[in-house]
User: Fold this.
Amino acid sequence: MSQRLVEIWVGLFVALGLAGFLVLALQVSGLAEIRQQPGYQVAASFDNIGGLRERAPVSMAGVRVGKVERIELNPESHQAEVILRIDQRYDRIPVDTSAAIYTSGLLGEQYVGLEAGWEDETLGSGDRITQTQSAVVLERLIGQFLTRMQD
Amino acid sequence: MEAAENRDEMLARVRGLCVRRGGRSIFDGVDLDIRRGQVTAIMGPSGTGKTTLLRVLGGQLRPQAGEVHVLGEAVPQLSRAELYALRRRMGVLFQSGALFTHLSVFENVAFPIREHARLPEPLVETLVLLKLEAVGLRGARDLMPAELSGGMARRVALARAIALDPALMMYDEPFAGQDPITMGVLIDLIRRLNDALGLTSVVVSHDVHETFAIADYVYVLADGAVIAEGTPAQLNASEAASVRQFVDARPDGPVPFHYPARSLADELTGGRGS
Amino acid sequence: MIGAIQGLGRRTLDGLRGLGEAVLLMLRILRAAPEVVRRPRLLIEQLYVVGVLSLVIILVSALFVGLVLGLQGYYTLVDFGAEDAVGTMVALTLVRELGPVVTALLFAGRAGSSLTAEVGLMKATEQLSSMEMMAVDPERRILAPRFFAALLAVPLLAAIFSAVGVFGGYLVSVGMIGIDAGAYWSNMQNAVTVQDDILNGAIKSVVFGFLAGWIALHKGYMATPTSSGVSRATTMGVVHTSLAVLGLDFLLTALMFG
Assistant:
């Protein structure tokens, strides 16, 4: 085998390996989304976010409109402060929209679902969604069910 | 006579060499002198550590005791870098030839040149072809080692060993397992190269006839010590029993036919016979 | 009884001596790194041997592993109504575990064994010895390029393995079962992160490449220079590499994802 052919093959091999890494970084881990899609931030407070994680999807009527950017604990109210990043093209979301945390399937990932309101005014960057509904925590649900049974 | 020879320039000198491996003593107080420009033969029955001696000279094996000076350097005391510098001035022809099986004949001979000198390709080619011409195998330049006969492989290995124009050339059993014609070619080559290139040669062999034909001086080793030394003529004239046994190829004598063991009767009867 | 204890002691000492030899050999190989950089041609030749020639087995295995993962993931997850998470499962399994581990095991069998056999045969036929006597250090000329080629090739092969495996999972779950392509990718992208998963997977594969090259070359270099010695060294090289990879994988997983 000639030196030239060996070099071409090795070049192809290294390129393929690097392409593998690139696919893993961009397509598999979705690193591409970080710089992609201009959007605006909206805050929401929840009593309990359950298993919600950063980068979880935010959807409205089942359509993905953004993602969870940051989750913090508010040191004063002891509530979970969730910063949502809504894609720029969905800029006509009413201010009285409500947010709730749902689970996809019985054991699937948790996501934030938005329920559109009726106001004409729309949400903008830095606004806050006031009406929120916490995640359904299975243990609490069962607990409530049991206490009611006893009544 | 002895005193006159000692005044000759020594290329290598070994004094009181002791080598032990695995509890067995291979050398026990060996003294050798390799004189510049001569072909010195190290002879002895197989298993006496002749090859080990070459490995000691080349610094691949560190002796337990004794002085080893080669080309003015004390070999066992050299650092790794100094040892590699010294080895550039040595050539070794291994018994198997030890050609690089993945390289062609040409590339095998070019290997040491390419490794040690950044020469333009035409010059490398000239050098390699000259070395191959010297062993009569210029026409085999594009063959692979697997396509060579044993004798040809050894000649290619010889061309490779002299590629860097060494000062000291060592041959490990160059005649072992060769047909008579190849043997004649090799005998001729070793002597011719030694004289034409101004080398000093050390030939390790047990082939008495062939070795006596080219050697200027011969050491006979047995049981870890030099049992005889001299020119081939002196050894041929020697009356010592151990020398005669070796020179005349007698099966048993002072060098025993049997590897040390219990007596046969003892072994077969499981010790009950005695 | 004393004999058994002595045997144990001797074996322990032999093992430690072997380990010490291997570590010293590794240090000398690492010190030869500048020379490998100076002569990239040697490295490229070895990358061809250990990398390019391993590509086919890696590509084919990765595709099948991906297909199986997709299928098994679906069968398991569909019971919980979470079949959309099949992409997540396939990707995490591959990137964190199967990519680096299976690549290292295949590499040990395909490339590591041939490295051991090649070096062992070079030793048995006195090629290494004669190289030393030509004042060429076989550790620098023969071992170092092969080691660094393995060190580079395994992470690249592992990345290719994971990427192809994810594609295989896509084929089976989206193409065959009919899961929504968007769900496959977006669930995966939500769960897989660069710094936790992909970087840790890459670190694992670098460690495994180091191990595979080291063990294969050490076994060959220290082989008894006979045909039975070389064949034994080749077998032991594959066995030890596989055990070391699996054992170290557990340790690394505990450290990284614990």
About this structure: The longest strand of chain B covers residues 10-21. The radius of gyration of chain B is 20 Å. Residues 180-196 of chain B form the longest helix (17 residues). DSSP finds eleven helices and ten strands in chain B.
